[in-house]
Amino acid sequence: MYEHKIPKDLSCGMAVTMDIIGSKWKPCLLYNIYKGINRPGQLQAYNPKASRQVLNQQLRELEEHGIITRVVYPELPPKVEYFLTATGRSLIPLLEAMEAWGRQYATVHTDTPEMAVQSINC
């Protein structure tokens, strides 16, 4: 994981939460895995604006934090799937609240094209 030059202040719950899931793609990855999108190729297809390298890095970080588990099946070619751990499943109410809030906000603020809610995968 990237080491910050300035030590992180993880003295409050919000700071800890943001340290673990506070990146551009982690909430989407977690929500996709929760919805059954488990394979790396599927996650890439559901998050096409993210590079494979960034997705792999963020999946690795989530795995290091114990939020997801990576299962490699012994077959050729290797099959990899990601699943939420019990700790990861405890984030589901938070992710659902974020999704609902984002959709509501976007419907109220549809005056700009970038705020238009699409039926996307995240």
From TrEMBL:
Q: What keywords tag this UniProt record?
A: DNA-binding, Transcription, Transcription regulation
Q: According to its UniProt record, what is one Pfam family this protein matches?
A: HxlR
| Signal peptide bounds | none
Q: Does the keyword DNA-binding apply?
A: yes
> InterPro entries, from UniProt?
HTH_HxlR (IPR002577), WH-like_DNA-bd_sf (IPR036388), WH_DNA-bd_sf (IPR036390)
Q: Which organism does this record belong to?
A: Chitinophaga agri
- Any idea which GO molecular function terms this record carries? DNA binding
Q: HTH hxlR-type domain: which residues? A: 12-110
Superkingdom field: Bacteria
Q: What is this protein called?
A: Helix-turn-helix transcriptional regulator
